[in-house]
Amino acid sequence: MFRQNTRHRERDLFDDILLQLPEAKRQKALSSREYAFYTEVFCRIDETIFEPLFADGCGRPNAPLNCMAAAIVLKEMNRWTYEKLFRGLDFDLLARLAIGLTGLSETPFCAATLFNFQDRLVRYEQQHGCNLFEQLFQRLTGEQLARFQIDAGIQRSDSFRAMSNIANYGRVRLLVEVLLRLYRILEPADCERLDEALKPYTEQSSENYVYRMDPKDLPRELSRLADIYVEVARVLGDSYAAEPAWQVFERVTAEQFELADDGTVCARDRKDVGSGSLQSPDDVDATYNAKNGKPQKGHKVNVTETAAPQNELNLITDVAVDANNVGDGRMLADRMDTIKENTPELEEMHTDGGYGGSDLDPEMAEHNVLHVETGTKMGHARVNMIYEQTGEGYSVTCPCQTASAERTAKRWKAVFDDTVCAGCPHCELCPAQQHKAKRTLYFEESWAKSSVRSRNIELIPEERRKLRPNVEATVKQFTGCFNHKGKLRVRGRARASLQILAAATAINFGRIFRFKRHRADSPTVEPADRAACPAICIGMFAAFIASCRQFAAKLIGSGVLTRSGPSQHPSLSEGLCTG
Description:
6-stranded mixed beta sheet, single chain, 6-stranded antiparallel beta sheet, alpha+beta, Nucleotidyltransferase, domain 5
């Protein structure tokens, strides 16, 4: 049963540690980063976003969702492990204050509850295709953009690779590991039927098996594994179709083996196994790619943030996790609808040359967004040819003349005036070729579009032409998500997305905290900000407690009250009896 948590707005006079602190320390706590996190993030979490995770009607109420969501962000903000997170929530006053806990008597959730909450988020996304934590990030970010009046008309985007925390499986080891995982879930009768075929593998781990194998035996081993996979599929049929281990087995069979012309099953050639094939049974979403000659297995993250020059504060507006073999342009194209919906004022997007191409151009045109590239993958011609879009066609301008282009069956063709070309000093270097009595340039449409994109930077003022590079500093801030090996601490795209979204929320908060701290004219308490009200309440409660203590001290000093209880003074006893 879903129930909202509002207990953090109710102060406990006897268990509130803030009320027991001296004034100087209390002021330090209220000016800390953790209390700012409480007001900027925790108090603004809309718990109703997570309501679909829980059943309707009566039943056991959920643990405080705002506490758990804030704890996930707090973990990424401090770059903690889960062990450090729970240690902080148990014994660190400021860490508890960040999630609305001012007493030391209890923690509203245990480790298992937090893990179950994350599992529910992952399952909900897998079943419904809806990332609830992404909705929380967008809700918080939209409110922050409006509250700080941040101009989102100009944004910049970049991507980075996020390697999955998986072992580096070779081809044979992967095939053996998948067999072992399947063997562990089999019924005893099925194990007996396959025991003879799988005995060489089941007696040791896949790593040890490959370690003892001679590299010269690799072709023979792949052929043997092909026969074993066929035998396992024949024996088990569809008995385990609902099991994840069997689904992985079927996927690997389709990706690694093929039916030969003679009717036998054999291993595919290495180059025929795609980069999207299974890399590890522990992360079925991880894909393969190489950057600068270095192989990587995992995911790719695309980050978009505001970049208007007049902004004193810029925030991340969108993050997305996808396969790392997807192009940058394709990733941003898939996110343009969401970005434009959340920031409808977007008019200009700055990227590097890796985003240019046919995937992104239609989306930019549909949303009327100017795509500014700081570089291009297109090679430089010896003679500068300028392509311009004119309606549904193109015009091509060389140093001496302009010609209209017309579409051919496969390409575009621009015919130049041969009399002008005859006197051109660049004639020998020109990409246009002489054909009979005319000089013709054939070009692909992608060339023309790349030329248009590369000149977009000339359409904007000089001060806006170098806005993109700072997004690389934002990318650097996400390295806190990685472990000492440069890998994510989680596996699977859904869990990677949860961690990246939490990190983006923490990065935005950090920027807001630093912005407010360094802004000289920032008031201590904003009356219009309901999240700042607890600070006023704490001061009122502290003054009330101090008054009570002073009154008690006076009673003790007069003998009416002792430290152990009421005084037995005769006049007081008589007053109580007669009064």
